[in-house]
Amino acid sequence: NDAPTVADATLTIDEDTPPAPFDEYGRTKLAAEQLLRASDHRGVVLRVTGVFGHPDRDGVFLDRAVGMALDGRPIPLAEPDRPEDAVAVDWLAGAVVRAATSDVAEDRTLHLAGPVRPLSGIINALGTVVTAATGRAVRTVPLSQPASTKPLLDAGRAVEILDLPPHPDDE
């Protein structure tokens, strides 16, 4: 079986890569996709990576990191150079609206993700903004445990088909 697994953390997958869910959550999402495809309903399947930037979501690491940085608490990091593809909520919302209202998206599966970049780069950019706003440097503390891993999503097809603007991190 050549399908990617959760251990393929540096693998970037596109919509042609066969799904290989590694937990019940992923298997449930795949089952929903299959039910849609088997039905007479028309629609688009959007596979979304981790989302950040919503003020009411403190369960996402990047949103928690912002809160820690603003509070002057150190941000715990495991494997800070690992690649990350988190997507900004505002960009994602626009992409979802375009997909829902586009005839060219119908009956497709599309990935929606941010650009792949090292987590440390994201934290450094966060540090620049927080330091400018508060005058405090952002601190990190290393974690000895390994970070969770997942394949990274390639959103190139969605960007092209839906004529999406660049993700804020691409500008």
In short:
The chain has 171 residues and is an alpha/beta fold. Helices cover 36% and strands 15% of the residues.
Structure in words:
This protein is α/β, with parallel strands linked by helices and 171 residues long. It contains 5 helices and 10 strands. It has helices at residues 24-38, 61-71, 89-100, 119-134, 156-162, and strands at residues 12-13, 45-48, 51-52, 75-77, 83-84, 87-88, 109-112, 117-118, 140-142, 152-153. Helix 2 (61-71) packs parallel to helix 4 (119-134). The radius of gyration is 17 Å and the shape is globular. The chain starts with 11 loop residues before the first strand and ends in a 9-residue tail after the last helix. The relative contact order is 0.22. The model is unreliable at 1-9 (pLDDT under 50).
Please tally the β strands and state the result.
10
Provide the low-confidence segments as ranges.
Answer: 1-9
**Computed CA radius of gyration, to the nearest angstrom:** 17 Å
Helix content: 25-40%
Main pleated sheet:
2 strands, parallel
Keywords:
alpha/beta; two-stranded parallel sheet; 15% strand; disordered N terminus
